[in-house]
Amino acid sequence: MPDLVGSAVPTGRLREQIQPTFRIGELTLRPFRALDARDLREAYRDPGIQRWHVRSMTENEAHEWIASSAARWSAETGANWAVTDDGGALVGRVGFRHEVPG
């Protein structure tokens, strides 16, 4: 699909920045951490998630996904945030991906 609008943020502006953390009510959106791998693996065992993601995820794959998420931020091709509750428990994920033409 062609990119019909220009960039809202100039290329290169985000890659040098640390991915931000946001506090929204009782939830926190923060970059994924290596310690989230076990929770991420467990989430992929949930039937509701498997309905949309027809794969399982080993702990190794979860670590690789977390590392690739950080790499996407640096490459400015996407971002993922872990959604945590007041106690710091992982309760969800929010993210986006930008396909670079090429």
Query: Which oligomerization state do the chains in this entry correspond to?
Result: single chain
Sheet with the most strands, sense and barrel status? 4 strands, antiparallel
The string of secondary-structure elements, in order, is EEHHHEE
CATH third-tier fold name: Aminopeptidase
How large is the radius of gyration? 15 Å
Label the structural class: alpha+beta
What portion of the residues fall into strands of 2 or more residues?
A: 15-25%
Question: What is the name of the CATH class?
Answer: Alpha Beta
User: What's the total count of β strands?
Assistant: 4
Task: List segments where confidence is low: pLDDT < 50 over at least 5 consecutive residues.
Answer: none
Number of domains: 1
Q: Fraction of residues in helices? A: 25-40%
How would you describe the overall organization of this protein?
The protein has helices at residues 37-43, 47-52, 59-75, and strands at 22-24, 27-30, 78-84, 90-97. It is of the alpha+beta class. It has a single domain (22-97), classed as 3-Layer(aba) Sandwich (Aminopeptidase), CATH 3.40.630.30. Strand 1 and strand 2 form a beta hairpin. Helix 1 packs across helix 3. The radius of gyration is 15 Å and the shape is globular.
